[in-house]
Write a structure and sequence with these properties.
This protein is α+β, with helices and mostly antiparallel strands. The protein contains nine helices and nine strands.
Amino acid sequence: MESPYTMLHHLNPNSLKNILFLFNRVWKEHCFPSSWGEAIVILILKPGKVATDPLSYRPIALTSCFCKTFERMINTRLVYVLEKEKCISPLQSGFRKGRSTLDNLVFLESQIRDAFVRRNHLVSLFFDIEKAYDRTWRYGIIRNMYDFGLRGNLPLFIFNFLAVRYFHVRIGHSSSHKFIQDQGIPQGSVLRVPLFNMHMSSILHHLPSSVRGMLYVDDLQVSCQGSDMRLIKRQLQTTVNRLVKWCDQNVDTRYLLPRAAVSIFAENVTYTQILLYI
């Protein structure tokens, strides 16, 4: 039976030492408790949605209190290493200390102003990779950590943490049978965001040299400026093709498509739209 946080807060020093001993064994011996890989999913009705529609509910995953406590300890070390080794692109501003959406807005504004000063057009594409957390390629995360030179207990813990995940859905007092979660980063995980940020940052390395981009977690904005709209369109189509290829290898491409938008910033209003193919 899982221990609630209220119980953990009231443990005496000896009990806390025993928990720390357990955490150190998991860390050093690479033995990940099977119960830590299970989640209970409860459904929360979204405001203003129809209760009879399954898509009207937001799934919330409840995981082990012990595991999440240990995750917080690991997360402190993981974030420190990722930032120190520059494993996360400086153009990723999502959920990072001292960063916010304001960085993305200022970045876009500076591009627009620069284009107008040069009397150029600027075309921006905005992507929201829907359900990206749930469709992320797990072994891509491990590969990224290896490529960044991370060795030892940290990547081994992340591997064991992601390897085997199960969940069952609870509605009222009834629960479904177990389902295996064979892809994605577990919902409710403390490590979810830094692992995703690290993996997602690599998408910026696939942009053409004439195209600039910035991320806020899974929201991607790319821009290209120039005086010839046909050349801009060609560069952006190349960009889209590369993004689709990256998604083929790292997430499910279908979830790149539903939320994409194009904005044209130009003093000449001749161009009101641009057609790109995904």
